[in-house]
Write a structure and sequence with these properties.
about 220 residues; alpha/beta; Rossmann fold; Arc Repressor Mutant, subunit A; 5 strands; about 55% helix
């Protein structure tokens, strides 16, 4: 029986997933936690075979958590379960080491299929995600969204700017200097052909992307 840890900031979602996964009869849910910090603390006490990880978390976002998790516990498989469409975050998550990406609207049958594949050492990809990855390999973007031009770090700064954080606060979150954050901001404006924060906020709202719950509530 494979072991699972669930990381999602909504108690009802965690409890529902726990009951659902245990009902499959193949998996033991060791714990359910509400944040990346809580997840990393739990992993120190003992790892699991699979971690189910949300993208939007309080504190460190899902991408940061995934990178930290894979750096310390490379053997742990990660299934991303998110409210965001595949074309927003999936490619970055797969590149960072995730073994699969599922939208929260997926059926229980799809969830079990994804877990079974990951537990067997395979990756789970929907047909649409496979198409996105193929486009990336061939040097083509299937969405041609300008935020895809950003590096992972630039993308994080981009989203935090969209949430209204100033450079100092972003620096504290990412453990970087204000000067470094300012450099990333300049690169973002250049790559995305933008001139001010208002344009970033507008873009994020239209594309329905963002890491934090506070941002989701404004859309």
């Amino acid at each position: 029986m494979k072991s699972v840890i669930i990381c999602d900031d909504h108690p009802i979602v965690r409890e529902g997933l726990k009951l659902l996964i245990q009902g499959f009869g193949k998996y033991e849910v060791l714990a359910d936690v509400e944040s990346g910090e809580a997840l990393m603390k739990r992993l120190k006490r003992g790892t699991a075979d699979i971690v189910i990880l949300d993208v939007s978390l309080p504190g460190s976002n899902g991408l940061e958590v995934l990178k930290s998790l894979k750096a310390l516990y490379g053997h742990v498989k990660v299934l991303i379960l998110s409210m965001y469409p595949e074309d927003q975050f999936a490619l970055r998550m797969i590149k960072a080491g995730a073994s699969g990406y599922l939208h929260k609207d997926s059926s229980p049958e799809i969830l079990q299929e994804a877990l079974d594949k990951i537990a067997a050492g395979e990756e789970y990809m929907s047909k649409s995600l496979a198409k996105i990855l193929l486009g990336a390999v061939n040097g083509k973007s299937t969405t041609q969204a300008s935020h895809e031009l950003l590096s992972d770090r630039e993308f994080e700064v981009f989203l935090y700017i969209g949430e209204g954080l100033n450079l100092s606060n972003i620096g504290l979150k990412l453990n970087l200097s204000v000067k470094t954050i300012s450099t990333y901001k300049s690169r973002i404006y250049e790559k995305m052909n933008m001139e001010n924060t208002s344009e970033i906020v507008r873009y994020i709202m239209v594309k329905n992307i963002g890491f934090q719950t506070s941002l989701k509530q404004t859309m």
